């Protein structure tokens, strides 16, 4: 093939014009421990820190890279493509420059391309080598992760290792060959579809599949299998027994996958499990994850109840004051009898009750019983099955028609085809809808639609897919992926269509070469992948491109542009495949599938020409290209021309590849390319957090926003105002109400204004900047004329004293700190809001988000031009119903989409509670929209109680003791007296609160009293205090301001903020919420002098502590022991896990829980299973971490 240059110049360095920089790469866990660090990392200057971190941590070879290499001469191979090995005596190290990675990838591709005869001459090979390196460095395209892991290690460094049981087909002889080394033939394929036979231990059977899966996971690939060939539960076996069924084997495979990290680094195994809708065990499969999540809920609730009941037995024994011999006799010890009765009522096993009594007789006085939580990476989830794969159901048109017509549906035996059960199709459909609604699985694959576009039906139907559902082809085949970054082809005014087509041609060639050089995990996959040569070229950043162009994701123009770009990509790719076939021959199965494949190509071409009819062999018509809606007509013309070429060249030469394109989720590689959006997804947030070298983040606007505003005609000054509205100005300059001019009018000088400006970046409320400590007592008293006694009054509000209203102060807060949304932004016209719609509402004020239909119609616009399928999540709001889920599936089928996966916000048990608690409740929404702040607080408290108690745990109410401990705290907030009284359980846990306010209106006092009751009921039903603390700290409403009478809290943004700060400090040891932290190991520690206390025996010390616990309030002591008793007990460690650097930091930044902070920032709210950071985002049907690049997918 002839290779032209578009991004490089002949005779010049491929990296010319691409400046590089040296930086430090460091990835830390949330606790500060270092996951990865590289001090001298070289990357292109334009790359973000996240991209630098991902390539360094994920893709750099860490060991075995020689410091010096020598070329190995090979006959017929140009010098620049010859393999390298370590020079004699060269030290082994790791890769430190992105250039090394680019060179080994492009070099290996060019080497194997030369060996395979893909280049017309050395000049073309050199052009290809340079162009690919330039595209990698410019982030224009990237291959899937296994290429980065494996490709070029042998070619560039001579790295090798023992064979791992792989196979390849020799491109010269066509012979299937067992690999003799681990890396000479790399494993570049990310996506595999594997078959499984209904056999237990033989090759190709069930247990053999787990070994083949492990081999793939180890090298960073993902795999999917249709398990429908396995017999259902109770079907007869040849030996006379009966099958244990499908589910038992799926659980074995799930456990095996969960134990494996893929890529040899930190990525989880990526796996898809598929079952046909007529399988005898289909109902159990549909409800698998629903049932398993119910087990998690039971584990969480049951473990906590068991700990409570068993320790209550110990408590009853301790409280017995009669004869010691009678303490263990329930007939005599009434307290013990009641505790045992309560344990039995809670279904605590009798053996455990007896065990506790036996422990007590042996001198033990408590038991530490493990309790669980609903974190998705916790022991509770690890103990159940079904958590290590994506699940999908294969449904046919016949099934969906039966659903529409309320017909019957038969489940059939795998052997003999006997009907094992008949049920209504709608009943099964209801189970599918409920499961998707309840736990986001299973997805749907539309079997007949998939096979209507099948290019090789003569070799059997398509039954499976890869883990993310974009690669769909014959069993025992593989696909290597690559994606183009669409935004790199946008120059700010027009899309560079010719450069895009050039890149598609080169990446199609790259993926084809990768088939030639690859090794595979089994003989069958090696042979069939070589025969059919399926490719997976796609793109990323369509959401970012549309926003940059000023187009809404949910618009006719947006969908039309997506369709045109997809049509152009696949048309050029198939035309390139046919061009290669003209030189190297068509794929082995082409002739027997010739008519079928050309029929598919003709249907694609009809859709590209915008034809509404005339399609061959399609029961569901595709969505044709909307030429009138395409904003750039050149793309329409080029797309039609590309498909004309593909068809004519294919008729003349055939095709080199049975498939060429998919749209993958582009998880980790999307981060390497600095894509704002992945695959075909829209954006998820307008304000993002940019990572800094050496750690830390700062808030920035999504870079597509300013570009979109310019495209929409806004002036630079207007753009600056809109951006600042979202991210905050961090300055009072030009702020509404309170600004430099207003301050000058009140007597401020430039020196004082500079002091205020210096303090603003660290403030979460402007009121706390205006005080005598910032401005100086002399200025406040002398210039502003404020009496010194007022300055010393903690409730004094300097801004209110100067005459600024509450509205002006709040407006200034928004000006300084930002809103994280564009809704309500200055200058922004209402008709342009849709351009900035994201998958989720943005910020706390954001209400807009993309509809369910917008996701489906965008998929449909692209699907008509994709060889394979599309990996995408259909985002649904928390209030979506089961019917909404079913309707989304049906609409996807009706529009010709091949597969669909839904995600309803909050559907996973592990999701943190969010503002979505009130979504769908009209009465609650009305209160939240128009009610007073205390009324809103009551509604939110009730929803927390309802969510945890009623929907999730459904546990019994735990009554407080009739006579209980607690404490009363009086404080003055903004001049208003507040009394907080607590009630505690015998073990010191908080069980109730009472609130009262002095001289407040009866309505407000009653509202606060009702709020306290709602919180108390929630606590007694087991709602963790942490949930209330996370929900109500930092709420803002009057009264608010400085706090008097509390040694730890000096200011509060509302009464609720104060109350839950106080409770968190006293009962949870949340010292990060204190402005003056309780210091030392105990609540009354005075200093570090020598302690005048003699050592005592351990038993005496322990009894002292127990006595203290019985007579004192946990909250009053702030979870700290008196100093003397701490010494007696030998307490040396500091209590609690929170240790912010300074109280000032907590005050300025407004520390909140990691989960809630992540949700506010637009992330999912769960921690990454690899680095622990709360930066997971939805990525197609998978998840990816924006910190370390870890994904649950295979790209």
Please compute the radius of gyration using only Cα atoms.
Answer: 33 Å
Number of strands: 31
- How would you describe the oligomerization state of the chains in this entry? single chain
Name the beta content range.
5-15%
Number of helices: 42
Span of the ends, CA to CA: 28 Å
Helix content: 40-55%
Tell me, what's the shape? globular
Name the structural class.
alpha+beta
Sheet having the most strands: 10 strands, mixed
> What's the overall average pLDDT, rounded?
84
Low-confidence segments, given as residue ranges, are: 262-267, 911-922, 944-955, 1080-1105, 1121-1152
Relevant terms:
ten-stranded mixed beta sheet; five-stranded antiparallel beta sheet; 42 helices; alpha+beta; single chain; 1195 residues
Structure notes:
With 1195 residues, the chain is of the alpha+beta class. The chain is built from 42 helices and 31 strands. The strands form ten sheets. Strands 7, 10, 11, 14, 15, 18, 19, 20, 23 and 24 form a ten-stranded mixed β-sheet that branches. The two termini are 28 Å apart. The relative contact order is 0.08. Mean pLDDT is 84; it is low at 262-267, 911-922, 944-955, 1080-1105 and 1121-1152.
């Amino acid at each position: 093939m002839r290779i032209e240059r578009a991004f490089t110049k002949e005779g010049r360095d491929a990296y010319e014009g691409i400046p590089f920089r040296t930086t430090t790469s460091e990835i830390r866990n949330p606790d500060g421990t270092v996951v990865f660090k590289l001090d001298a990392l070289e990357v292109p200057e334009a790359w973000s820190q996240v991209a630098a971190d991902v390539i360094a941590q994920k893709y750099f070879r860490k060991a075995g890279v020689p410091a010096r290499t020598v070329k190995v001469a090979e006959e017929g191979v140009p010098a620049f493509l010859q393999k390298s090995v370590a020079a004699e005596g060269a030290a082994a190290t790791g890769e430190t420059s992105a250039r090394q990675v680019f060179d080994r990838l492009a070099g290996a591709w060019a080497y194997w391309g030369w060996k395979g005869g893909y280049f017309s001459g050395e000049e073309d090979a050199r052009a290809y080598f340079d162009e690919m390196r330039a595209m990698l460095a410019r982030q224009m395209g990237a291959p899937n992760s296994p290429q980065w892991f494996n490709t070029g290690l042998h070619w560039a460094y001579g790295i090798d290792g023992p064979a791992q049981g792989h196979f390849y087909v020799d491109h010269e002889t066509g012979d299937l060959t067992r690999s003799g080394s681990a890396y000479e033939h790399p494993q570049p394929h990310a996506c595999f579809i594997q078959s499984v036979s209904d056999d237990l231990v033989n090759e190709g059977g069930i247990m053999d599949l787990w070994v083949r899966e492990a081999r793939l996971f180890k090298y960073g690939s993902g795999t999917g299998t249709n398990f429908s060939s396995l017999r259902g539960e109770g079907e007869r076996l040849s030996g006379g027994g009966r099958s244990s069924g499908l589910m038992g084997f799926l659980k074995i495979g799930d456990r095996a996958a969960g134990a494996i990290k893929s890529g040899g680094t930190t990525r989880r195994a990526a796996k898809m499990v598929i079952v046909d809708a007529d399988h005898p065990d289909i109902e159990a499969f549909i409800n698998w994850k629903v049932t398993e999540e119910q087990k998690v809920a039971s584990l969480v609730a049951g473990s906590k109840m068991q700990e409570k009941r068993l320790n209550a037995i110990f408590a009853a024994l301790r409280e017995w004051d009669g004869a010691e011999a009678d303490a263990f006799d329930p007939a005599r010890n009434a307290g013990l009898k009641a505790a045992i009765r309560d344990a039995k009522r809670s279904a605590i096993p009798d053996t455990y009750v007896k065990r506790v009594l036996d422990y007590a007789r042996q001198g033990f006085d408590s038991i530490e019983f493990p309790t669980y939580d609903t974190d998705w990476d916790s022991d509770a989830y690890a103990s159940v099955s079904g958590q290590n794969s994506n699940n999908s159901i294969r449904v046919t048109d016949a099934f969906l028609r039966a659903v529409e017509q309320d017909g019957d549906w038969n489940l059939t035996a795998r052997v003999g085809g006997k009907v094992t059960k008949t049920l209504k199709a709608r009943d099964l459909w209801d189970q599918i809808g409920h499961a998707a609604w309840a736990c986001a699985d299973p997805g749907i694959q539309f079997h007949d639609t998939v096979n209507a576009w099948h290019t090789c039906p003569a070799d059997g139907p398509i039954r499976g897919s890869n883990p993310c559902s974009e690669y769909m082809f014959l069993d025992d085949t593989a696909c290597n992926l690559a994606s183009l970054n669409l935004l790199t082809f946008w120059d700010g005014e027009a899309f560079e269509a010719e450069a895009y087509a050039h890149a598609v041609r080169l990446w199609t060639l790259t993926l084809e070469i990768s088939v030639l050089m690859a090794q595979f995990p089994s003989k069958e996959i090696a042979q069939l992948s070589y025969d059919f040569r399926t490719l997976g070229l796609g793109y990323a950043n369509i959401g970012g491109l549309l926003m940059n162009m000023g187009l809404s994701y949910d618009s006719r123009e947006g969908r039309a542009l997506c369709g045109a770009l997809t049509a152009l990509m696949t048309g050029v790719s198939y035309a390139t495949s046919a061009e290669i076939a003209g030189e190297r021959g068509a794929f082995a199965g082409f002739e027997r599938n010739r008519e079928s494949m050309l029929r598919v190509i003709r249907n694609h071409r009809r859709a590209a020409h915008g034809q509404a009819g005339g399609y061959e062999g399609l029961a569901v018509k595709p969505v044709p290209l909307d030429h009138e809606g395409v904003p750039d007509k050149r793309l329409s013309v080029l797309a039609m021309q590309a498909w004309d070429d593909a068809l004519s060249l294919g008729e003349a030469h055939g095709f080199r590849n049975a498939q060429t394109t998919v749209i993958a989720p582009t998880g980790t590689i999307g981060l390497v390319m600095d894509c704002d959006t992945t695959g075909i997804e829209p954006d998820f947030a307008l304000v993002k957090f940019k990572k800094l070298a050496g750690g830390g983040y700062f808030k920035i606007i999504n870079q597509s926003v300013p570009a979109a505003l310019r495209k929409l005609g806004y002036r630079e000054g207007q753009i600056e105002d809109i951006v600042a509205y979202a991210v905050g100005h961090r300055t009072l300059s030009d702020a509404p109400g309170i600004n430099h001019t207003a301050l000058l009018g009140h007597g401020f000088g430039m020196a004082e204004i500079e002091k205020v400006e210096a303090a603003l970046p660290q403030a979460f409320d402007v009121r706390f900047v205006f005080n005598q400590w910032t401005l100086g007592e002399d200025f406040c008293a002398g210039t502003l004329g404020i009496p010194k006694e007022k300055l010393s009054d903690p409730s004094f509000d300097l801004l209110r004293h100067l005459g600024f209203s509450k509205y002006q102060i709040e407006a200034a807060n928004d000006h300084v700190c930002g809103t994280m949304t564009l809704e309500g932004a200055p200058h922004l016209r209402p008709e342009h809001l849709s351009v900035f719609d994201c998958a989720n509402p943005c910020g706390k004020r954001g209400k807009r988000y993309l509809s369910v239909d917008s996701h489906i119609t965008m998929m449909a616009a692209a699907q008509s031009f994709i060889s394979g399928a599309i990996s995408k999540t259909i985002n649904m709001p928390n209030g979506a119903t089961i019917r909404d889920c079913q309707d989304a599936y049906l609409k996807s089928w009706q529009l010709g989409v091949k597969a669909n996966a839904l995600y309803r916000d909050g559907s996973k048990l592990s999701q943190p509670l969010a503002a979505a608690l009130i979504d769908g409740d009209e009465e609650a929404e009305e209160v939240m929209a128009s009610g007073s702040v205390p009324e809103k607080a009551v509604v939110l408290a009730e929803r927390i109680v309802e969510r945890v108690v009623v929907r999730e745990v459904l546990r019994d109410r735990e009554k407080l003791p009739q006579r209980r401990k607690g404490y009363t705290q009086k404080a003055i907030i903004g001049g208003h007296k507040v009394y907080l009284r607590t009630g505690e359980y015998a073990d010191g846990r908080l069980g109730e609160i009472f609130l009262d306010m002095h001289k407040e209106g009866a309505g407000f006092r009653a509202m606060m009293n009702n709020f306290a009751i709602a919180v108390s009921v929630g606590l007694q039903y087991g709602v963790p205090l942490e949930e209330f603390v996370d929900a109500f700290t930092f709420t803002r409403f009057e009264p608010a301001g400085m706090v008097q009478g509390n040694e730890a809290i000096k200011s509060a943004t509302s009464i609720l903020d104060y109350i839950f700060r106080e409770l968190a400090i006293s009962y949870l040891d949340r010292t990060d919420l204190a402005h003056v932290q309780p210091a030392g190991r105990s609540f009354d520690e005075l200093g570090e002098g020598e302690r005048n206390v003699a050592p005592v025996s351990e038993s005496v010390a322990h009894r002292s502590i127990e006595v203290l616990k019985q007579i004192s309030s946990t909250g009053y002591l702030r979870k700290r022991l008196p100093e003397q008793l701490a010494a007696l007990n030998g307490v040396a460690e500091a209590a609690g896990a929170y240790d912010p650097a300074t109280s000032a930091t907590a005050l300025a930044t407004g520390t909140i829980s990691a989960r809630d902070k992540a949700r506010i920032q637009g992330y999912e709210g769960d921690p990454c299973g690899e680095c622990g950071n709360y930066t997971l985002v939805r990525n197609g049907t998978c998840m990816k971490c924006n910190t370390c690049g870890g994904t649950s997918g295979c790209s």
